[in-house]
Write a structure and sequence with these properties.
Elements: H1 3-6, E1 15-20, E2 24-29, E3 50-56, E4 67-77, H2 86-89, E5 92-100, E6 105-108, E7 111-114, H3 115-122, E8 129-138, E9 143-151, H4 161-171, E10 182-186, E11 205-207
Parallel strand pairs: 8-11, 9-10
Antiparallel strand pairs: 1-5, 2-3, 3-4, 4-5, 6-7, 8-9
């Protein structure tokens, strides 16, 4: 976006977008919010960073249902500018994207992977997984992704280990350049998972990067 319009600063990792408040409702909400409680939470003031929630004002039904996008952002007034007609400019605001919310996704090899999509895949019947864990670690040059799985009993619907690994490689877009940094580990018991220090629970996602 044109920095002369948004006030974007060099060296700022954020990305600015202008939106029309007549078409879409955009709010920054507390980052502790759960998706099923987004409707009754007081939004942050302009300039405060929070979880991005949007709602289309063009829908005929349920137009005010908020959707948590999984991004971190803040809202800002549009600075006065000669580039936009004042009559139109009064309806515009700036959405400043700060990155992804790590509660909803993580990035590996330059791509973001959504936890909801991961759960849907791994907890499918054909995977027959009793417990799972994703561990992101770091070598001197690259991030290493390990998926640990404890599988259930064999049945007709259960994928073979090889087919399961292929599906995971497809999901995480593993190619010849990244296959050395991707690993699927089949474990035989819960003792082989990393656990939280506080509750001694198996954590589905563990980031060990320094």
């Amino acid at each position: 976006m044109n920095p002369a319009v948004t006030g974007y600063r060099d060296g700022d990792d954020a990305a600015d977008f202008i939106f029309d408040t007549r078409d879409i409702m955009v709010k920054a909400l507390p980052r502790t919010i759960a998706e099923d409680s987004a409707g009754g939470v007081e939004p942050f003031q302009d300039g405060e960073v929070g979880a991005l929630a949007t709602a289309s004002l063009q829908r005929l039904r349920n137009s005010l249902i908020r959707y948590l996008t999984g991004d971190v952002s803040s809202l800002h007034l549009l600075p006065k500018t000669d580039f936009i007609d004042p009559e139109e400019a009064q309806h515009f605001k700036i959405l400043r994207m700060q990155g992804r919310d790590k509660r909803f996704s993580f990035d590996w090899q330059g791509e973001y992977f959504d936890f909801k999509a991961i759960r849907k895949l791994i907890q499918s019947d054909e995977f027959s997984v009793l417990q799972w864990q994703i561990i992101l670690s770091e070598t001197s040059t690259q991030h290493h992704l390990e998926v640990r799985l404890l599988r259930g009993q064999h049945d007709d619907r259960r994928l073979s280990d090889d087919d399961l690994v292929r599906k995971l490689r497809d999901f995480f877009n593993v190619d010849p350049d990244t296959e050395g940094y991707f690993q699927v580990t089949f474990v035989s018991g819960l003792q082989e998972f990393e656990r939280s220090k506080s509750g001694n629970k198996v954590m589905h996602y563990l980031d060990l990067k320094s």
